[in-house]
Amino acid sequence: MTPTSPLNDPFDLLDISSQVGEEERDIQATVRAFLDDHVRPHIADWFETATFPRELVPELGKLGVLGMHLTGYGCAGTSATAYGLACLELEAVDSGLRSFVSVQGSLAMYSIWRYGSEEQKQEWLPRLAAGEAIGCFGLTEPDHGSDPANMSTRAVRDGSDWILNGAKMWITNGGVADVATVWASTEEGIRGFLVPRGTPGFTTHDIKQKLSMRASVTSELSFADVRLPDSARLPEARSLGAPLGCLNEARFGILFGALGAGRDSLQAALRYADSRIQFDRPISGFQLTQRKLADMAVSLNTGMLLSLHLAKLKEAGRIRPEQISIGKLNNVRAALDVARECRTILGANGISLEYAPLRHANNLESVLTYEGTEEIHTLVVGQALTGQSAFR
Predict the structure, then answer these.
(1) Where does the Acyl-CoA dehydrogenase/oxidase N-terminal domain lie (predicted)?
(2) H or E, element range at 164
């Protein structure tokens, strides 16, 4: 049988690009080209040295990816599909980079855009969109990850001010953020507050010795009698539903982004399998290797079709939280399995940072956990199916 030409992109199997509009394809191509030029040549070194390239942030602002799915205040106002495809390209380089963009745009910026006052929006959103300022999102606590309703961080009224005490853990961008959206329990329920860096009593401590997300800043936030004016409170955030709404925005980016890590891993394995000669032939010609490659391609293409379907639901204003949970649950699982399997095709070379799959797999271990663990999303889907909550 005459060999056929290999595909450049695993998603070409189902001609998935034909399901995307021209403007969205152009945005995706622009983001990919920028990353290929400015980030991909350096990412392995940044991962090895646990370096977050802060100088890249204004460039991401110029690229227009910070809060790109929001409207006004310097934001690009793109479609959900365009945002998802940008996240895919970002995570194809490294999950830490996509995580920065997700936290900046879908958590820090979205919390202000959706729940903030006009004064708060004018003060922060243009700077955050331009990459002139960095934001973070303080919800997870050392003892309260999957159960934020029982958070220990508390804000109490003191005259016209608030006094904030507590701690947040595993906060992406925390150590470099200029402003933190912090969620706290109050006598009136859970409320959000904007806490600028330098506010007395507000300190951060970066988490070191990470085996995952090494090119990303992860921090603990501490609040000791932090005095805030009432103008720091997000006026439209009146319950736990507010931070959970922000998380759904970020999870949407993740369900696209994880597929980028999977695609990059599969492309690395395809290139390697075609060039690695064993028993006088490329290993890409062996049946066991082809089965691995075919299974991975089917999994990623299925995940991509799911993502595009969810994007259409989001653009129509019809997406539900359990549908986002299905996307994150399926696609992160798939991408992690693909990255691990690709490492096996690379053999011993797969443990080297010269090749991306094991770096992607390490990062995806964090993606599987944050913004809703695999277990939590499983229970969200289970509750949607049965009408019964298994959380308590």
Answers:
(1) 22-132
(2) strand 161-172
Contacts of 336-339 with CB under 8 Å at 24 or more apart are 336/258, 336/361, 336/364, 336/365, 336/367, 336/368, 337/296, 337/299, 338/262, 338/265, 338/266, 338/296, 338/299, 338/300, 339/261, 339/262, 339/265, 339/364
Distance CA 192, CA 247 (A): 14
What is the sign, positive or negative, of the torsion defined by CA atoms of 117, 118, 122, 123? negative
For the chain, domains (ranges, CATH) are: 11-130 (1.10.540.10), 135-232 (2.40.110.10), 243-386 (1.20.140.10)
> What does DSSP say about strands 161-172 and 189-196: parallel, antiparallel, or unpaired?
unpaired
* Catalytic machinery residues: 371
User: Are residues 292 and 369 in contact, defined by beta-carbon separation less than 8 angstroms?
Assistant: no
* 189 beta partners: 186
CB contact burial 315-333 (16+ within 10 A = b; e otherwise): eeeebebbbbbbbbbbbbb
| Residues near 251 by beta carbon (within 8 Å), at least 6 away in sequence | 324, 325, 327, 328, 371, 372
Integer Cα distance of 125 and 113 in angstroms: 7
Which two three-digit tokens encode residue 337? Answer: 């399995």
The whole-angstrom separation of Cα 281 and Cα 151 is 59
Phi/psi of residue 186, each to 5°?
A: -135, 175
Pairing of strands 281-282, 202-206: unpaired
What is the distance between the alpha carbons of residues 39 and 56, in angstroms, rounded to a whole number?
9
Kind of pairing between the strands at 277-278 and 71-72: unpaired
The number of residues making up the chain comes to 392
